[in-house]
Amino acid sequence: MSVLLETSLGDIVIDLEVETCPKTCQNFLKLCKVYYYNLNAFFNVSKDFLAQTGDPSATGTGGESIWSLIASQQGKHAPRYFSPEFVPRLKHREKGTVSMAVAPHVDEGNKGGCGSQFFITLGDNIDYLDGKHAVFGRVVEGLDALDKINEVFVDQEGRPLKDIRIRHIEILDDPFEDPEGLVVPESLPTRPPDNSTRIAEDEDPLATLPEEEAEQARRKKAAAASALTLEMVGDLPFANVRPPENVLFVCKLNPVTRDEDLELIFSRFGTIMSCQVICDKKTGDSLQYAFIEFDKREDAEQAYFKMQNVLVDDRRIWVDFSQSVARLNTNWSNDVKMGPRQSRGGRGRGGVGGFGGRDDLEATRRYREGTMEAGGGYGMVFDVPDERSRHRHSRSPRHDRSGDRVRRSRSPRSRRDRERDGGRNREREGRRSRSRDHSRRSEEKDRYGRRR
């Protein structure tokens, strides 16, 4: 009676002593039948000594017999271990001996015994294990796999640095009847039962990617790092932002092409949410590229395939999907249309303010322009005064470009203003005359005193 262990380092065939150790072999075969050992790790490997497995937790303290497993599934209680079957003629003499690990007696409630853990010897004449652990089989094929297991690197606790796992166990012959209540799972387990942080059994730590794949991986990491940096400085709303799939980028436009022209041409593919020809912020001239936002992604795809290299205003345009994410960021955006159809401070269809979407700066600019046009004196200290404000606030006489003095024009004053100004002038002249008289009398007194 044999079973086939398919491990990550090779296949191992084990012959079982079903006649000599019936209970031990029945426990082992039924655990194999319910996929209990699938994806279990060899958690203890000692060079030229043994390789131990059969514990789902990979700690050396777990595992139970098939009868305990059935009882726990039914909500009943049963002993975790069963009594080991020691046969004097079955000894640990040869490499490849398969033996059940016997748990020690801890207290009266835990008498110890055999559960699910077993090991395979990796050396000959290990006789000091006789009578301590129950032998129930031996390896007949797959000794080269045992040699590979014997050469693995392990840590200070004997755990391989790279996982060695039982991928599957195939039962070649089973002479025992199933215990009452045994339920075979419908599918094989796909995840290891333990939380291993070691190198995976199907992973090669020394493997290198082809040059193209390695370069692609490096570019992907560099792009992720750049996106994180742009998020930190505020240029992106979040690092994993993706461009919209319903926005097209159209370039190589004729400078005379306007929003209405593109919207009319592309509207036959579906509903257009916005169509903007990007213009220079200062001159208002077209930059010869535009963004067209469709209501549906399918409409954008159809327009992409149909409008490539189409002649528009004697120019063959180029259409591609937009890679810009500026419209997704509501705080800062440079996607501003500033052309003849939109004033410098206004908002176009689907656009943002003239200061990159900053409403506070836009309101400040409007306030400044309004006060300056109304004749106010509002201004920033770092602003360079324009010609009008410099002439208005200057006290020196104005000059024209040729350098000649320009006579200021005065607006006509009312009669009340003239009378008020006249009174002020007469009062000022009276103070001056009294001051002159007082000075003259003081001089005369001084001269009279000197004569005497």
Automatic annotation (TrEMBL):
Per UniProt, residues of the RRM domain are 246-324
Query: What cellular-component terms does GO give this entry?
Result: nucleus
Q: Which CDD domains match?
A: cyclophilin_RRM, RRM_PPIL4
Annotated region described as Disordered, given as residue ranges = 185-207, 334-452
Which InterPro entries would you find in this protein's record?
CRIP (IPR035542), Cyclophilin-like_dom_sf (IPR029000), Cyclophilin-type_PPIase_dom (IPR002130), Cyclophilin_PPIL4 (IPR035538), Nucleotide-bd_a/b_plait_sf (IPR012677), RBD_domain_sf (IPR035979), RRM_dom (IPR000504)
Keyword annotations for this protein, in alphabetical order, are:
Isomerase, Nucleus, RNA-binding, Rotamase
- Domain PPIase cyclophilin-type intervals: 6-171
Taxonomically, what lineage is the organism?
Eukaryota, Fungi, Dikarya, Basidiomycota, Agaricomycotina
Work out whether the entry's keyword set contains ATP-binding: no
- Transmembrane regions: none
Q: What function is annotated for this protein?
A: PPIases accelerate the folding of proteins. It catalyzes the cis-trans isomerization of proline imidic peptide bonds in oligopeptides.
Under catalytic activity, the entry for this protein gives:
[protein]-peptidylproline (omega=180) = [protein]-peptidylproline (omega=0)
One of the entry's Gene Ontology molecular-function terms is: RNA binding
Q: What is this protein called?
A: Peptidyl-prolyl cis-trans isomerase
Q: Where is the composition biased (Basic and acidic residues)?
A: 357-371, 397-406, 414-432, 440-452
